[in-house]
């Protein structure tokens, strides 16, 4: 199933039976919902039934006789939708507009409201945070798989920003950590325009036990992890100092996409503690710009919230 525009999404969400060509099938196709659930009591396939009070589908297996049981489990268990109060069909509108960058609160509220119910600002704020978190976790894994940026003839700029308190829904807690941004700001001919980015969240730098400036060794390790050696020139914006780690000389001659982006986000009112999220949202959309952003987002969300792989902290219902 492929939803190419908002009209097609509306047609899909209007299906009377979502389990027959509707939103349940869309979510199953991309991997956000399980396609089958085996009843843990008898080994038969559980059936999907609508739980009207929760506006959600449940896996259910009810047997009498020698092994009587009544197995019930939410289709949303361990999924992106596990904690939502909003019905999934309305969340899909939110995801649609988020994916395409139509992400002002007013747009999202308008587009996810019904004739009877106006989506609350609180719900939108919560959902935007969850969706940005999907971008964050997905990119983190992607960077790890893709390997290093930089290389011969490529200038890489490094930028550090402290990020504040933030509790993750599914992922690491990065309270008081630093975000290290790495961006290719000039590439050799034939490698295309627009530098690749890397982001790393790191722990607060340890105290200077070795007598070296605080955080220097850790920063070097992060650069080595993400940036191919052989760069002609590499600059670091370490708080207010600009340092070249090759020579540890200061430099002020930095042109980049990274700091203008941070500046733009701050100008839009994004506070520092949320900066990493907004940067990731931007990077995610940039990465997938040649694709159908809605379908790409659903697939990324299914990788991060894979219902077949519950998070370690998940409780058994
Ligand atoms: Zn059963």
From TrEMBL:
Domain ISXO2-like transposase: residue ranges: 148-287
Identification of the protein by name: ISXO2-like transposase domain-containing protein
Organism: Aquatica leii
UniProt feature coiled coil, ranges: none
């Amino acid at each position: 199933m492929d939803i190419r525009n908002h009209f097609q999404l509306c047609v899909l969400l209007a299906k009377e039976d979502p389990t027959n060509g509707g939103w349940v099938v869309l979510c199953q196709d991309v991997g956000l919902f399980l396609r089958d659930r085996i009843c843990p009591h008898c080994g038969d396939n559980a059936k999907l039934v609508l739980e009207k009070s929760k506006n959600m589908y449940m896996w259910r297996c009810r047997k009498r006789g020698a092994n009587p049981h009544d197995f019930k489990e939410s289709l949303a268990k361990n999924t992106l939708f596990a904690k939502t109060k909003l019905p999934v069909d309305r969340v899909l509108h939110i995801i649609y507009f988020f994916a395409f960058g139509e992400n002002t609160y007013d747009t999202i509220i308008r587009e996810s409201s019904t004739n009877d119910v106006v989506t609350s600002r609180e719900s939108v704020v919560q959902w935007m945070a969850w969706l940005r978190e999907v971008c964050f976790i997905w990119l983190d894994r992607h960077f790890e798989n893709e390997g290093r940026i930089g290389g011969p003839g490529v200038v890489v700029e490094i930028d550090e920003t402290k990020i504040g308190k933030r509790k993750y829904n599914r992922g690491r807690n990065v309270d008081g950590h630093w975000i290290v941004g790495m961006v290719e700001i000039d590439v050799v001919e034939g490698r295309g325009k627009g530098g690749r980015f890397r982001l790393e969240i790191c722990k607060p730098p340890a105290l200077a036990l070795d007598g070296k400036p605080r955080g220097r060794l850790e920063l070097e390790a992060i650069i080595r992890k993400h940036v191919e050696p052989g760069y002609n020139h590499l600059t670091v914006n370490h708080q207010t100092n600009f340092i070249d780690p090759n020579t540890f000389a200061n430099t002020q001659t930095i042109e980049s996409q990274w700091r203008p982006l941070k500046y733009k986000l701050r100008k839009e009112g994004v506070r520092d503690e949320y900066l990493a999220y907004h940067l990731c949202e931007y990077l995610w959309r940039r990465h997938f710009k040649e694709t159908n952003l809605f379908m790409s987002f659903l697939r990324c969300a299914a990788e991060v919230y894979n219902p077949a792989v519950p998070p370690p902290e998940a409780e058994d219902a």
